[in-house]
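User: I'm new to structure prediction. If I give you an amino acid sequence, what do you actually give back? Let's try with this one:
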Amino acid sequence: MERLQRIETWLSGLWPGTSFTLAPASADASFRRYFRASRAGGDSLIVMDAPPSHEDVGPWLKVQQLFHEAGVHVPDVLATNLDQGFLLLSDLGNTTYLAALTPERVAAIPGDYLDAIDALIKIQAASRPGCLPDYDRALLQRELDLFPDWYIGRHLNLTLDDSQRQALSKVFEQILAVNLAEPRVFVHRDYHSRNLMLMEGAANPGIIDFQDAVHGPISYDLVSLLKDAYVDWDEEVALDWLVRYWERAKKAGLPVRPDFAEFHRDYEWMGVQRHLKVLGIFARLCHRDGKDGYLKDMPLVAKYLRRAVERYDELNPLRKLLDQLEGKVTVLGQTMDKKTLGVRSGD
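Assistant: Good question. You get back a string of structure tokens that encode the predicted 3D arrangement of the chain. For your 347 residues, that looks like this:
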């Protein structure tokens, strides 16, 4: 309530004599919150509330500038109060790509995703080293460690024995070697259906939640988009979009692998890293932060993981570990079956 009163005071100073209303717009997995400010007779705007004790708006502002210069549609910054952690932004609406996946829009969805691919290529084409943090070995390793620490240890309440830990460590090294050998570009890091906005009468997509962007593997954002934790695309559909990205990226001069099979392998192994990370993050959001809404999305992520590890013999140690975890998952108090865990390939 105190933060809301501070926002109202700040906006009253920006808009003297103007009446306005504030309503929750959205929240994310961090401490940031968003409010929609509607002025009498004017367009609505968005207030980002990022408490300085928990959130630094500096990275968001830096990435906003980089992505804006790349020519993609991100919120405009209209006013700032850095001391209090407030930003006033243009409103990209409330229709995410996820919300727009309706039967009435089936014919338009492929065009939406090609728009998202084109926007991603613009971001990648604007890449240069030294602007964003490196998606380096240490960061990729910390993300992988979320899987044994939070998903296995906390969520499944299991303890790995020495041989299991050694096997997992070895396969992590193999995954990292493939990830780190990829060409490097700007990486949004959460380029998926909840962070892409469907715009009416403007360039699609509107892009949000980019403050964690880094300079890293070129296939990463394709994994976020096409192996989305919230949308279960048919594999043939996702593969078609991946091919279209690869063709367009080559024409744009991006450093994608010249052989699609090699690019696809990079994409699959990058996916394994992300799936392991996301399972750990979803577990942490539940057990540390009290946000259990993400648990329902775990089975899809686990399915992606299972599909990938079954395609590559080098990942057999990870497949065997998943087999050993079979039947151990508890989500919202219910023991889930093998298919829900994602340890069988017949789905």
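You can read the tokens as a compact description of the fold. Here is one thing that stands out. Residues 330-347 have pLDDT under 50 and may be disordered.
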